[in-house]
Design goal:
single chain; 108 residues; mainly alpha; Recoverin, domain 1; two-stranded antiparallel sheet; 5 helices; 64% helix
C-alpha cells in the first residue's frame, strides 16, 4: 500500500518547509528509512515483532501501545513490517501529529 501525496499531505501542510507535498513525503521516507535500519537489527529487510518491540520498549513505550502500533503498521498482517509499510505508517503518523498541532494552535 503506497500513500499518494494527495491522500495525506496537501500543499498547505508544509511539515518541513517545502510547498511540494512530494518533497515532504521524500523527507519523511528518508527519516523512516534511517529509523528502519536501526530497528532492523538482523538486517533481514523487515521488522519482526521482536525487533519492533525491543526498540520501542527501550524508548519507553508499553507493550499494549507497541502492539497497537505494530498491528496498524503491519497492513498485510504477515507478522512483519516491510520497509514500505513502515514508510507509509510514518507518513500517516507525521501527518497526524502535524494536524493535531495545527488544530491545537487554532484552539488556543
Amino acid at each position: 500500500m503506497s500513500i499518494s501525496s494527495s491522500t495525506t499531505i496537501t500543499k498547505s501542510t508544509q511539515l518541513y518547509g517545502s510547498s511540494d507535498p512530494d518533497e515532504e513525503i521524500a523527507i519523511i521516507h528518508r527519516n523512516a528509512d534511517a529509523t528502519f535500519a536501526v530497528i532492523d537489527v538482523d538486517g533481514g529487510g523487515t521488522l519482526s515483532k521482536s525487533e519492533f518491540t525491543n526498540h520501542l520498549s527501550v524508548s519507553g513505550y508499553n507493550i499494549d501501545t507497541i502492539d497497537k502500533i505494530f498491528n496498524k503498521m503491519d497492513v498485510n498482517k504477515d507478522e512483519e513490517i516491510s520497509r514500505e509499510e513502515f514508510r507509509d505508517g510514518m507518513v500517516m503518523l507525521v501527518s497526524f501529529v502535524f494536524l493535531c498541532i495545527r488544530c491545537e494552535h487554532f484552539l488556543y
